[in-house]
Amino acid sequence: MSTPDDTAALRSNIRLLGETLGLVLVEQEGRWLLGLEERARRLALAGRRGSEEAIEQLVAFAKTLELDHQGLVLRAFGVYFQLANIAEQHHRIRRRRAYEREGRTAPESLADAEERLGSLDEASRHASVELVLTSHPTESTRRTVLRVHRRISDLLGELDNPDLTAPAFERIRAKLTEEVTILWQTDEVRSRRPHVYDEIRHGLWFFAETLWQTAPDLLGELRSRAPHA
Description:
By secondary structure, the protein is mostly helical. It is built from 9 helices and no strands. The mean pLDDT is 85.
């Protein structure tokens, strides 16, 4: 479980990304949209804390918005949640690296499995691992958006440098603004139904961007712990 210190970097990343999104909204659409988004966010937060009045006000507020304004506010929230998810995924990587530096066993790692199962060498003889890629209608995120997610995550990684200078921070912040702008200007989902060719390309993207990079490291660690795997 994360401690307060564990989550400080995560909160900082989310705050930075949220501020960056606010700047992009003002630049791309106008300050009026940021005002609508902030009002909806405040009412939603109060509603989550138990205020029935805030929920009623939020419903009434949404009804007063024109349809296109509703769409923009919802899209602003959607982009914010994308950014928050990127920060959370990066934080998991950051915590895993911290575990490794401190010599601790990271949760859900092979070392953790070995502690739970005893001998991975013996357990692996009875294990069957199969890779399955499925085409799911809800997994329709475009590759363009996924690439932006990757670049934002890489920039968050640069912010973890303990020797980061003020000019370097401003450079990273400028790049984050560029990437969030691209994210705002890009439709998250396709405007047309994907063809089989599109689904194949989408599946191959995960091979090129993730599996080819991580599988050798994972297999190498498994063989070091289970030579007969």
